Amino acid sequence: MFSHLKPLxxxxxxxxxxxxxxxxxxxxxxxxxxVYKDEYGDTPVLKCVKQAEALRLNNETTKSYxxxxxxxxxxxxxxxxxxxxHNALLANRVRTAQxxxxxxxxxVAAEFVKRCNPDATxxxxxxxxxxxxxxxxxxxxxxxxxxxxxxxxxxxxxxxMKKVIGEQVKQGDVxxxxxxxxxxxxxxxxxxxxxxxxxxxxxxxxxxxxDIAYLGFGEGIDEDAAGLRLMVDAVPESIICSSCSKNFGLxxxxxxACSIVAEDAQKADVANxxxxxxxxxxxxxxxxxxxxxxxxxxxxxxLTQLWHSELAExxxxxxxxxxxxxxxxxxxxxxQSFEFIKHQHGMFSFFGIDKPQIEQLRTEYSIYMVGSSxxxxxxxxxxNIDYFADSVASVLANK
Length: 399
Ligand code: LMR
Fold this sequence. Notes:
Blueprint: H1 12-21, E1 29-30, H2 47-59, H3 72-83, H4 87-90, E2 94-99, H5 101-116, E3 121-126, H6 130-138, E4 142-147, E5 149-150, E6 155-156, H7 158-168, E7 174-178, H8 191-204, E8 207-212, H9 221-234, E9 238-243, E10 256-261, H10 265-282, H11 289-299, H12 301-331, E11 348-350, H13 355-365, E12 367-368, E13 374-376, H14 385-397
């Protein structure tokens, strides 16, 4: 049964992570996988998480199942975190299932879409997170791209995006948006552009699916959720896939959520029954640990404040690094302008160098970035920035 199988290439992001881990160069720099790193290159457990875990250890009374939708305290807190005091919540139109990470949320959402409309095409930005395509295809959906990032101007191709979505997306299709901190480009829609997308969604009757994996990593919680909230307000139906991997630093706990916003409370109940049947058929029930941690934090004013300050520390570090990278590269006398890095959001930017240069950075200098030139700026620190800038300068000088 297995003998005819052909080996598949490793995932571009996870393969890079493994290559970095086995590199013995003491100067190596990991700008690959989207994991936050502090000044020392560590991804520490947040203090608020440690405190919540201590409480959990003392207070947990059972290991029984937590149910198909997961921890209802967690899902309730997530809905308010994502939507604020939103009309959709006041009208009881939102139903949420706790999922194994943001990827789990996307897969559940994809299966849900398939149940709603087996012929739906899901439209993703060009480019998008490397795993979006395979994940949606694995669920049996047709995937198509709409123009998004402009490699020439290092900005958005918004007019083209609008044209393709306006002309080619059909009623019953799904359009995937990144709420903030676009992965891989770091280029986000402005609120005015979200408004235009919301108008299109109404006009064309497509369903927006919003992937929010980096809430709080761009400008702040409310700022990063503003586009999502606007979109959810404008349309009768939408889907939100969220993750607590990055903003709570809970990567390996696999904690996320899939929220369905329906036209009214009754339709939301029906949609929820389908959502939970999807969950039952994939993994039956989610794990408890990450959900309890997030719920414990968000249920306590003190822990929430601590979380806000730790989240702000991560965000500020990323934003300071963006300026530092640009200034250091320009101080090395590199002709090419990297100014755009300052104006993007979240951990990622396309560095904008070509494949041989990316390869040379990896093989000669042990600097790892994804083959598309996506770099995780959080991999830079005060101790490696000069090595990074010198290495880039010498690679670009060989052009
Ligand atoms: C990334 O984009 O690097 C992260 O979301 C990690 C992953 O699973 O790809």
